[in-house]
Design a protein that fits this description.
By secondary structure, this protein is an alpha+beta fold. The protein is built from 9 helices and 15 strands. The protein is rod-shaped and about 145 Å long.
Length: about 350
């Protein structure tokens, strides 16, 4: 798989039109190199390693005792305050691991320059993989002359940038192709840019997904609470309907059944004619005492109770207090050749009886 490497100009001068040296590596060997601007290189989506200009490659090494990672970072930050000219808050400071000789490589770069690089890369399709000081493009043990600086690579983690006046160097110089072939160290100056690149749409989508999950959980909890409340209200309504209408054998739809029973009471009818027989029988037995011992047969059909009397029984007059009692209950009794029929009274008759 090919990998793209770019040698950046000074970050303060960087733009989309800046000419940069680049090289394509495959299996650690340079397969092509050249010069182009960032806009041209960014036409296709590629992952890229960026190497700072020697002017921006500020490196040093510290001798530190074995320390935990957190204390090593604190020691590097404390030492950086004495090494950096200017406010340390404006610098991105990074360091490598402690090596066997106790040395820890330290590097720093202005945060403003890194932000500029990030903004320009965001305008292209280049995907940042890492930002490293200039010497880390070299193979280990090699040196190169670049823009008036000597670049040396002592180990995988250790490197240095020397002003041209320091000539006491006993390392071989590499040719133009080999200067790109070095393995990158385990540390770099790209932490700030990677954190920013992990934001943007990725962070926005993560926030949207989190909000949707919270909303879904909340909606499910609300729906479950409403369902429980509905079941509780239905159970309470069913209990109230049973108490108000004990003649109902079962309550399945309390609201509808209550309405039917209220309508039946107001009109003198019931929702189910079969439920009227016990009430009519009780009403006749309680308020028509003259029928005691005189009933031959009882017939209940279409909500009407017909009482056939014995042939030798004495029939009461059509008028009497018992007729008023029946009327108040919403029923009326009529005489025929075979006995009495008790049925719901017409609405007008019931209303008239109530007014009396």
């Amino acid at each position: 798989m090919k990998r793209l490497r770019i040698a950046l100009p000074p970050l303060a001068e960087l733009s989309l039109d800046s000419q940069v040296a680049f090289a394509w590596l495959e299996r650690g060997a340079v397969v092509s190199d050249g010069h182009a601007n960032l806009a041209q290189l960014g036409k296709n989506r590629h992952a890229v390693d960026c190497f700072l200009h020697p002017r921006d490659s500020l490196l040093t090494s510290l001798d530190l005792p074995p320390l935990p990672a957190a204390k090593t970072a604190a020691a590097v930050a404390c030492a950086a305050q004495a090494l950096i000219l200017g406010p340390v808050e404006q610098m991105q400071v990074a360091h490598g691991p402690r090596e066997s000789d106790g040395r820890v490589q330290v590097g720093w770069v202005p945060k403003a320059g890194l932000e500029r690089l990030g903004q320009l890369l965001a305008q292209t399709q280049l995907q940042l993989r890492g930002v490293y000081a200039a010497p880390y493009a070299l193979p280990v043990g090699a040196a190169a002359l670049d823009a008036g600086y000597w670049l040396t690579r002592d180990s995988l983690q250790q490197a240095a940038v020397h002003p041209l006046g320091l000539q006491a160097l006993d390392v071989p110089l590499v040719d133009a192709a080999q200067r790109w072939a070095g393995a990158v160290p385990s540390w770099g100056l790209h932490a700030r840019l990677r954190q920013a690149s992990k934001g943007g749409w990725g962070r926005a989508l993560a926030c949207v997904a989190l909000a949707a999950s919270v909303w879904t959980v909340g909606l499910n909890l609300y729906a479950a609470r409403q369902a429980d409340e509905g079941l509780r209200l239905k159970a309470l309504m069913s209990q109230q309907v049973r108490q108000a209408f004990p003649e109902l054998p079962v309550v399945l739809n309390p609201l509808q059944q209550a309405r039917q029973q209220l309508t039946a009471r107001q009109t003198g009818a019931t929702a189910d004619p079969g439920q009227r027989f016990p009430s009519l029988l009780q009403l006749a037995g309680s308020n028509l005492p003259f029928m005691v011992g005189s009933v031959d047969t009882l017939t209940f059909e279409q909500g009407r109770l017909h009482v056939a009397l014995l042939a030798d029984s004495r029939s009461p007059a059509a008028e009497g207090d018992w007729q008023a009692v029946l009327a108040q209950a919403g029923f009326a009794a009529t005489r025929d050749d075979h006995g009495w029929s008790i049925a719901p009274a017409p609405v007008a008759e019931t209303a008239g009886a109530s007014d009396e």
